């Protein structure tokens, strides 16, 4: 099964058209994915089929520490109430302590607030200390899925660790490879790891044609945007189905 991460309405529609069965809904994928707006969730729900699940990212800010303050946690707890009202199908979250361990206290807060909806632990796992011990903590806490690149920059390079995680998990939790998944490596990742789910952005760069003052910049690349390609999603889905 293919999950596609998106951060705009066009990409969500393209993911559904291509055959994705689940969407990870974010804002700012350029920042690794942040909490999206409720309006985006509601609009997507009104424009795609109910058969596509939407899991909402819970990440209040950028940065790679994943150590959240009490105020940031309060923001997320308020967000969850609204997203549940707007019919989110699940959530994506991860929190670490400053020494890189799974923050069980904050994870329990989020899991309790999300009930009865399922929660995926995201790639904060890939920067945690003692990852294989941390997998046991994630399972015990009650997360249904772990998104991971296998402790490397991309899932293909982390394939050996993904295989080890799948073996250790022993069907107690879904291990879902993500990061750098493409048509050139998706079959290898699936076949060698034995996973049942995989995560990709399936994005392509699109040139943006508009008039602006050339000496003003709002991002690292003001002339391009990234959107999910429905044809690429379709090809990824086909690759999975042939296995």
Automatic annotation (TrEMBL):
Q: What is this protein called?
A: Copper homeostasis protein cutC homolog
One of the entry's Gene Ontology molecular-function terms is: copper ion binding
Q: Which domain of life is it from?
A: Eukaryota
Task: Write out the similarity annotation.
Answer: Belongs to the CutC family.
Q: Which SUPFAM superfamilies did the record assign?
A: CutC-like
The organism's lineage is: Eukaryota, Metazoa, Ecdysozoa, Arthropoda, Hexapoda
One family from Pfam that matches here is CutC
């Amino acid at each position: 099964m293919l999950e596609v991460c998106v951060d705009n309405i066009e990409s969500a529609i393209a993911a559904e058209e291509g055959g994705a069965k689940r969407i990870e809904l974010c804002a700012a994928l350029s920042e690794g994915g942040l909490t999206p707006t409720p309006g985006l969730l509601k609009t997507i729900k009104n424009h795609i089929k109910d058969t596509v699940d939407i899991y909402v990212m819970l990440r209040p800010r950028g940065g790679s520490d994943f150590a959240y303050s009490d105020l940031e946690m309060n923001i997320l707890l308020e967000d969850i109430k609204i997203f549940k009202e707007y019919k989110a199908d699940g959530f994506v979250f991860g929190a670490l302590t400053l020494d890189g361990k799974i923050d069980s206290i904050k994870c329990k807060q989020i899991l309790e607030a999300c009930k009865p909806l399922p929660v995926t632990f995201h790639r904060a796992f890939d920067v945690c200390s003692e990852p294989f011990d941390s997998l046991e903590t994630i399972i015990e806490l009650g997360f249904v899925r772990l998104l991971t690149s296998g402790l490397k920059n991309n899932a293909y390079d982390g394939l050996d660790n993904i295989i080890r995680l799948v073996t250790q998990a022993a069907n107690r939790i879904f291990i879902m490879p993500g990061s750098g998944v493409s048509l050139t490596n998706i079959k290898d990742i699936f076949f060698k790891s034995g996973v049942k789910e995989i995560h990709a952005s399936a994005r392509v760069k699109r040139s943006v044609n508009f008039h602006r003052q050339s000496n003003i910049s709002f991002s690292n690349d003001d002339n391009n945007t990234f959107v999910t390609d429905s044809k690429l999603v379709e090809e990824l889905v086909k690759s999975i189905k042939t296995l």
